[in-house]
Amino acid sequence: MPPRSGSDVPDRASVVLIASSAGGIGALEILLSGLEPPLPVPVLAAQHLRRSRETDIVDILSRSTRLTVKLAEDGESTRPGTVYIAPPDHHLCVETTGELALSQGGPVNYARPAADPLFESAVRAYGPRVIACVLTGFDGDGAEGVAAVKARGGTVIVQDPKSAEFRGMPEAAIDTGLADFVLDLDDIAPTIERLLRAG
Q: Which residues form the active site (predicted)?
């Protein structure tokens, strides 16, 4: 279903975005384990992955959550309660119609997949109905995406660098001055749940 616009925009978010890099798979396991079905929205995740080999990230994350986890496919429509992971060597983006799109455009912040293309495309599709999370990582990926999310009225959650295995990505996101929440990793999922269910 395409994102809604105009007067029928819901009060709560319509999608959760997650960006992570070094240390991110463990952080994703913890975050996703705290999201309980029936989750009313899809989750789109850009975790920096090695380009040169197949990934077992879906199997790893599936052991930690009751949500459905899969690698995103080009052109597919999203479903609530499903976690879509950017596949190796592809940016994960969202079309304005709501379908997912995979791109092999140039690396962003030396990474493909990267957070910024995901965040920037998602807010073009969903406007303010976005919750964007920046987790552990050693570079600045996600900072420009955070600015795009806030420019459209979305919500930004950043992992407290003190609880992050690598502080670079969270610190870059915090340095924008645009984070709505800076939270220990264990507190992010409960906050997402409250935001989604508050209405």
A: 21, 48, 141
Cα–Cα distance measured from residue 167 to residue 113, given in angstroms and rounded to the nearest whole number: 19
DSSP string, 128-177: T-EEEEE---SS-TTHHHHHHHHHTT-EEEEE-GGG-SS-HHHHHHHHTT
Q: What residues does each domain of the chain span? A: 20-198
CATH superfamily of 20-198: Methylesterase CheB, C-terminal domain (3.40.50.180)
Cβ–Cβ under 8 Å, residues 113 and 92: yes
d(CA 147, CA 98): 21
* Model pLDDT for residues 8-38, shown as the tens digit of each residue: 334 689 999 999 999 999 999 999 999 999 9
Active site residues: 21, 48, 141
DSSP letter assigned to residue 27:
H
CA–CA dist 11, 119 (Å, integer):
19
